[in-house]
Amino acid sequence: SREHVRELRARFEALSPREREVLRHVVAGRLNKQIASAIGAAERTVKAHRAHVMAKMQASSVAELVRAYDLLAASSAGVAEPGAAAARPQPSAG
What is the pTM of this model? Predict the structure, then answer.
C-alpha cells in the first residue's frame, strides 16, 4: 500500500549515507568481509552499520530488508541505482 511505502521511505531517509551504502551492499548479497573491503572499513564497523540498518528499517531478516529495498526501488527511481534489483543474484530453481 502507499502508506507502507511512505513508512519505508521515511525509514530509508533516516539512514546515514554510510548506512545506505552498507544497505546497498547487503541487498546485493555481499558478506560483511566483502563490504568492509569495498568501503574501506573494519568488518566490525560494517557489522555495526548493518545492525543500525536492520533496526532503522525495522527488518527482522535480510530477506525482509531486501523486500523493503526492492519495494522502495520499484516505487522511486531515486532510491536505488537502475537495475540494482535485477543485478542481484536470484535463487536457482531446484
Answer: 0.79
Helix, coil or strand: residue 3: helix
**Does an H or E element contain 22, and which?**
helix 17-27
Within 10 Å of residue 38's Cβ, how many Cβ atoms?
15
Encode 41-79: b = buried (16+ Cβ within 10 Å), e = exposed: beeebbeebbebbbebbebeeeeebbebbbbbbeeeeeb
Cβ atoms within 10 Å, residue 30: 16
Cβ-proximal residues to 14 (8 Å cutoff; 6+ apart), any chain: 56
What are the pLDDT digits (tens) for 6-65? 999 999 999 999 999 999 999 999 999 999 999 999 999 999 999 999 999 999 999 999
Distance CA 51, CA 59 (A): 10
